[in-house]
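Record type: monomer structure entry
Structure origin: computed from sequence
Chain ID: A
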Amino acid sequence: MKVETIEAINYKNGKAKEVEEKVVLDETITLTINNDISRSLSAIEDSLEEFAVGYLLNENMVKTLDDIKKIEVDGPQINVEIDDTLLKTNETVLCSDSAGGWRSKIKHVNPVESDFQVSVSELIDRIEELKNNAEIWQATGGTHVAGIVYKDQFIVKEDVSRHVAVDKVIGYGLLNDFDLTHSYVIYSGRMPADMVIKMTRAGVPILASNAAPANSGYNIAKKGNITLVGFLRG
């Protein structure tokens, strides 16, 4: 588990005492694409292949796994080679990741074609299961947690960035042959446009969260045929 113990001072009821606290161990992760484009961001050094796959798809740099020619992970360094056709078009400027990618307006939203449904009771059970599987969050309170559900599989990833956590679970789904049009993502965090657009690009029809949607996320969801479930708290 990516946790480190540090010295701290606990202050309570007017008294201070020296204690040990657990904090999440984050690193500077660098993703280099075609030896040309480089992105650095703070993340947990875990599941980096899954992150790279999810990031490339969710940031509109690839359309399928076949567009990714190579992924090499060396510690916090990720080197990828992709079909650079999209990088030579205007699609390049559509990337949504406000944490580590290109900030720009989202100009095109392709609707997700799916008739997938999930029951209310399952979503309520899953949000509790999500919290119970968030080991680093339970130890430190310092992470976001995301899960992807496909049939009877529920995969959970954590990270200091909600973007990276979601990229990791979608990347996992792609690498393990999930039908993303019959899957859903459930996570801890708000639902603005830069998160909902990830669902449309991956083809995931449902995004559920214990937090609130934003108007920008709502607008992308309407255009992209995405069901948003907010305030999932029982």
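Annotation 1: Residues 90-104 have pLDDT under 50 and may be disordered.
Annotation 2: The CA atoms of residues 10 and 16 lie 5 Å apart.
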